[in-house]
Design the sequence.
């Protein structure tokens, strides 16, 4: 067993913290928005349909946990992904959810 998976290791808390951060749908929308590149708060707000204060709050959580970074360019702040591994994790979860839905649909009676 690697050091990252040993119970009691401080790495377990870090991993659990990532899952807590990713448990919010709005934060997932923000990460999805940033997947194609850096964005301003205004651009993220327009893409997600959330309020500016809500986006700013969630960006703060994502920054604090090392998933998103901030770059200042003049009077504009751009936010971008700092932990690209997060998209691999999201792909794994999405594929698992898709497979589950397909299994559940197969159990439903045919409506033809």
Sequence:
């Amino acid at each position: 067993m690697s050091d990252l998976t040993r119970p009691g290791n401080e790495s377990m808390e870090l991993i659990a913290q990532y899952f807590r951060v990713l448990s919010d749908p709005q934060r997932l929308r923000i990460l999805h928005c940033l997947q194609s590149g850096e964005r301003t708060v205004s651009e993220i707000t327009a893409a997600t349909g959330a309020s500016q204060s809500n986006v700013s709050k969630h960006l703060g959580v994502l920054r604090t946990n090392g998933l998103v970074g901030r770059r200042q360019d003049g009077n504009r702040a751009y936010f971008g992904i700092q932990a690209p591994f997060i998209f691999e994790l999201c792909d794994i979860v999405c594929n698992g959810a898709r497979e589950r839905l397909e299994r559940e649909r197969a159990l439903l009676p045919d409506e033809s």
Observations:
- Strands lie at 68-73, 76-81.
